[in-house]
Amino acid sequence: RHHECIKLFRQTELSxxxxxxxxxxxxxxxxxxxxxxxxxxAEKFIHNLDNLLKTRSLTQLWTNTDIQQExxxxxxxxxxxxxxxxxxxxxxxxxxxxxxxxxxLDHARFSALGFHALPII
Length: 121
Fold this sequence. Notes:
The protein is mainly alpha-helical.
């Protein structure tokens, strides 16, 4: 799905839609690059992330104790879904900042939480 995701990301850039991430997503993404691809790809990720944040092309939202506690409540409420803690903190942050669309391949999880997921599968 790489090419489809790249195309959608470029369309988002061209439309100047605001883009958000969270410290939890950064953590998971860095870890995936580091474990799966090695240091050089992980370092490129850090460099690209830093550039996006410095140019304000991307806003990073932060999970704090209140967000995490709300995420724990969400996990309990949706215990019949296979949500990760990062899924839950993402959902809480999205609700808090009134973000209705998420860029993810986990459509079922986020649709169940009431969000619009892109790319559409």
